[in-house]
Amino acid sequence: MTVTDIPVVRPLQARSRETEQRLIGAALSLLSQGGLAACQIPDVARDAGVSVGAVYRRFTDKNALLTAAFRDMLDAQAQVEGAIWTDRACAAADLGGAIRTMVEMLVDANERGATIMIALQSFLQDGADSSLKDHVRDHRRRMLNAMAERLVSMAGADAPDDVHDRIRFALLAMSGTLNALLIQKGADSLGWEAPRDRVVDETTAMLVRYVVGVDKQG
Q: Which of 35, 59, 83, 126 is most buried, by CB atoms within 10 Å?
C-alpha cells in the first residue's frame, strides 16, 4: 500500500463540526418553511442525514438547537447584508438615494424572511435564554449603527444640526414600521395589502422628510 492509498480520516472534532452545521442548516430550512412548529428534532435529524441521537449528542434539547440556529442566521446576515448595504449605499448619489436603498433592502429582507423572523420573535418571547436575547440586541444595534454612520456621512453641510439623532430615531421608527407591516401583517387589519413598491415609496418619503426636511427621494 502506498501513501496515496491510505484513506484520509478527518479528525473527530472536524466531523462533529460538520454534523453540527448540517443540523443547524436543516433547522433553519425548516424554520423558514414552516416556523417553530415545523422544526422538530426528528425532522431536523432526517433532513441532516443523521440519527436523532446524533442531535442530542450535540444539543441538549430543541431550545439549544434553535439558539444555535438563530445565532448562526444572525451572524450570516450581519456579514452578508452589511457588505451589500455598504456597496449599494456608496453607489447612491445622495442621502435620499441612500435612504431609499436601505429601505428597499430591508423591505426585501423582511418579505423574504417573514416566516423565520416570526419564529425568532416567538422564540424570544417564550423559550430563548438571555444569551440569545443579548445576541439579537447586539446584532440589531450593530446593523442600525452601521447604517446610521453611513447615512450621517452622506448628510452634507446643509443637513440639520441634529441630523445624527434624526437618522438614528428614523432607523428605529422604520424598523418597527416594517416589522409591523411585513412580519406582523399589521396592514391586514386595515384592509390594505401593502404592496412592496408602495411600502418602499411611503417609507422612503417619510424618512427623507424627517431626516433632511425636504420631500425628495433621491
A: 59
